[in-house]
Amino acid sequence: MASPTPLQLRCCAASGCRSAGSEALQAALLAARDQLGGAAEAVTIKPVGCLRLCGRGPLVALDRSGGDGQEPSAGSTELYAELTPEQAPALLAAATGLGDELAAQRLDPAHPFFALQKAVVLEGCGVVNPESIDDALAHGSYAQLKRVLLECTPEQVRDQVKRSGLRGRGGAGYPTGLKWDTVALQPPGPRTVVCNADEGDPGAFMDRSVLESDPHRLIEGMAIAAYAVGADQGYVYVRAEYPLAIERLRLALKQARAKGLLGAGIAGSSFNLRLEVRVGAGAYVCGEETALLASIQGQRGTPRPRPPFPAQVGLWGAPTLINNVETLASIPVILREGGDWYAAIGTEGSKGTKVFALSGAVANTGLVEVPMGTSLRTVVQTIGGGVPGADGPNGGVKAVQTGGPSGGCIPAHLLDTPVDYESLRDLGSMMGSGGLVVMGETTSMPEVARHFMRFSVNESCGKCVPCRAGTVQLAQMLDRFVERRASLADLERLEALCRMVGATSLCGLGQAAPNPVLSTLRYFRQEYQAACREPGQCEPPDACLLQEVTP
Amino acid sequence: MSVHTLTVDGVEVAVPDGASLLDAVRAAGAELPTLCHLDGLTPVGACRLCLVELEGSGKLQPACATAAGEGMAVLTQTPQLREWRRMAVELFFAEGNHVCAFCVANGNCELQDVAVTVGMDHSRFPYQYPNRRVDASHPQFAIDHHRCILCTRCVRVCDEIEGAHVWDVANRGAECSIIAGLDQPWGEVAACTSCGKCVDVCPTGAIFRKDDTTAEKEAHRERPQLLRAARDQHQWQNQ
Amino acid sequence: MTNPSDKLRFATVWLAGCSGCHMSFLDLDEWLFELAEHVDVVFSPVASDIKDFPENVDVCLVEGAVANADNLELALQLRQRTRLVVSFGDCAVTGNVPALRNLWSEVDGGSRQSVLDRGYLELADTGAQHPHAPGIVPELLERVRPLHEVIPVDLYLPGCPPSAERIRAAIEPLLSGETPAMEGTAMLKFG
Amino acid sequence: MIAPPSAQSPPSAPSPPQAELPAQAVERTTRLIRQHRGRADALIEVLHQVQELYGYLPPGALAQVARELKLPLSRVHGVASFYHLFRLEAPTAHRCAVCLGTACFVKGGGELAARIEQRLGLRLDDAAGNGTWALEHVSCLGACGQAPVLVVDGRLEPRLPMDDPEALDRRLSALGLTAGADAADAPGGAS
Lengths: 551, 239, 191, 191
What we know:
The complex is a heterotetramer of chains A (551), B (239), C (191) and D (191).
Chain A: E1 7-12, H1 15-19, H2 22-36, E2 43-48, E3 60-63, E4 77-80, H3 88-95, E5 106-107, H4 112-115, H5 133-138, H6 143-151, H7 154-164, H8 176-184, E6 192-197, H9 206-213, H10 215-229, E7 233-238, H11 243-258, E8 274-279, H12 289-296, E9 320-324, H13 325-337, H14 339-343, E10 353-360, E11 366-371, H15 376-383, E12 397-402, E13 408-411, H16 421-426, E14 435-440, H17 445-459, H18 465-482, H19 488-504, H20 508-512, H21 515-530, H22 543-549
Helix pairs in contact in A: 2-3, 6-10, 6-13, 7-8, 7-10, 9-10, 9-11, 10-13, 17-18, 17-21, 18-19, 19-21
Chain C: E1 8-14, H1 20-26, H2 31-38, E2 39-43, E3 57-63, E4 66-68, H3 69-81, E5 82-88, H4 90-94, H5 110-122, E6 140-145, E7 155-157, H6 164-175, H7 184-187
Parallel strand pairs in C: 1-2, 1-3, 3-5, 5-7
Antiparallel strand pairs in C: 4-6
Chain D: H1 23-35, H2 43-54, H3 59-69, H4 73-82, E1 94-99, H5 102-106, H6 109-120, E2 133-138, E3 150-152, E4 155-157, H7 165-174
Parallel strand pairs in D: 1-2
Antiparallel strand pairs in D: 1-3, 3-4
Helix pairs in contact in D: 1-2, 1-3, 2-3, 3-4
């Protein structure tokens, strides 16, 4: 562990707080410390990753009793929000017991937003300095990699992962251990491990937070995965829209290589691993695994039919393990605490914790990690605080969008649904990567559906016709509903085409593109019906049509 | 060589290992509509017309790009599949400008034929009328993008058989288009050998010989298969 | 049947098209006499002088796309007055050649302006000007549409033109109150 | 106006004007391709770096990349035009991106885009913009906690006050998002 320090300020240096001015704040804190001297000189100022409540950044945590508070709820830690550089001296004064000017900006660590979170994947997030491998090592990074290389066979590693019940956090929820087995048990030959960090769902920023806050955890997870499946090379495919994440990940890889934690003969073992970063160039479809592989190979990011699955035929034809960031970042903890420990968290079918990015019409926006099975109501109303300024049983919430453009809108009356893979699927939505966008009463559902359909139109790769041409037609049909010039026949056509595009598209993007329409039709059908003109409702009967076709 | 036994619409067939579901369907004497697939070229599974249902799982797979496996039960003509095929063809017609009346391929067009096969008597989806390009810069051939259905046969035949890779797909989604070189006029692309294979394989009137006018296009869509058999299996036509 | 005689009240309509479908219809030659025994032609550019579309029509073949205000008005009217509307030929079914101007719907003031400029200004040999005769020259619609985008259609008979045999094969069942199956190469052809 | 479908000159990119590229940039490109050991799978990485060099991907540079990575021209153009972040045309002096991700959408991102379109007199996602500014949409920047957000010349602008039109206008003016604004006036400008 790091040597205990009497006072420590942990300044959030992740994108959320950066955009709110955290760099200037940290510089001001350093300057103020030098200027104030005295007791302030003993205050450690450390940049860390995400402190969760992104909506009120920049955030700073103050540890009083020395050491890094594992959770902000620990009694010895205080948390301050929305700080300006001018307030740096006041913060140092508060830390050294010389003032209390910032009481109004002090957050209550017992608030459900913090108290109900369970940090597993995010345990180092907001605690370690993401740019220092020494700090990461002091917090236990790479300990599990070194241990498994020394003590465990690949089978034993895979066994722990299977016992944990971990399922893919990228959205589909495929059992991770099973995937690892499939790759490991392919005929002898080279294998590759790929981390899918192409987090493209609008409203999702979990993976970015992990990359920016605790990159060594991901690298360790990948290295363990590579060992478990027999891979000696790997790629992290990061979307180009995340420059800070890319920068920190590249730095972390360099540091890990320098420490002999990557490369040849890792930690004195015979295990070799070459890891590279590949940066995307703006294509949502590259989150689809076969498209991602094409992109890593320098091609257009178009998917191909499966089977064969990447676990059988992947990068350059070799078996390839593809896992998402959160999945791989869960691995070190699972090995440290044991698969059974992890499996005890969560529900029967969905084990462990899940990180959500909570945003939209909600009081507390930010990063939330909770056990699987926590109800949406707890996440949105208790943790999120509901819609600002609204009250009532559902706190002004009309619906919660999960799963991004592939998911759906869950209406307020179903807020007591536990968050797990099956429950969300049964409601016509999906877990997706973890974006939770809260929608208030004034949100028009056909408009939401059109928003997502336009996204799919924009992001369709154009390879297969249902997605390329079908999404265009669907978006135009939705225009008619948004502009209130649809007919009941349009409603029928909309549903029929949704089913066709969903069933016949080549990849997940097209297959899931109709979900936002279908789920809003399921729960908010009256809004679509209200946008239809009844025959005979118009005077003259074809007024709407005439309006449309005449100059 | 091992053999897989499977059923196609209840008919039992045996196909060699490595055969596709499309091969199995044909072996069973059934037919599936196809547009992007062409024997002799690598399948891409893009047009979705040859989707079949695997009984039991209910999963849909493109027959052209899926390997036949032991014990599979394949359904090719469920009412649902027929309806979706028709919708796919409607989407093709609606997204381009397919005016059969004065098309060079009228009467020899796979899109036109497939419309009849799937029973499309009109498109329920509004026509998009994209304003696309016509490139007649090549001395012998021309490409009319209005008629292109993005099957990528031209891209594949030029790459896989001719080895010139003149063509590729540019942009994405509804903006996709076939390009020559750096999106240059075809006639200016030095890589083109003027072999005419892209003309031969084009399912519609998108790529054609400039000598041909309405309904005069002759396509030779069997050529890639002959060439591939000649190269891979040394089967020549004079033997 | 709504008419007192047991003959079907039969109409044909010519919207934006070249009249080729009507020519093909006339190619039915002597079968037209047979047809006349089963139907009263109550409205047709080739077989009737009536100027207003009548009420209580049983079957109407509609050739052509919907390209101007008159086309639209007539289409709406015939739909209200007809039991079974047949979209007759590629222009009615797909928009076909008349709809090619839709390619310019997004540019230079839209397809309407573009086609007028091209036709009356750019290609004029002398006296270039836009036709202007309110109430006489019908206004062009901004977008040319196939018939079924404007009114519900009961039967589609594509072709440019549909051959006389296919027209007959489609009409014959209608005379005995049956619906023809528009399937297969015998009944379906575009172009 | 309807231009007759031109058979001779499709409006496509001209032949690569290799000679016009600055020699220094051409050399840099060669060097960076060598750093990737000329591997074809490095194409996307190479394009990123070449775009940094020129601000966009000029045809001549694409031709050079194709030659030195031993890839077909059409393959390189196909990849360059597939990904949203690659620009095939020279960018405007200033650029603004409005996030239309779901969180920003819920918080008024659409209205924000419309307001900026109006202020700058340009259209969203038109690369030419108003000559000085171009406005594009991005699908999510992962800054959902700060929604709605803009990126102005590479700098993220969080929490635009959509519920207070006056404050919004002041903020947008302060960012230089004003019609006819001289390029040099814009804070954070390239000057």
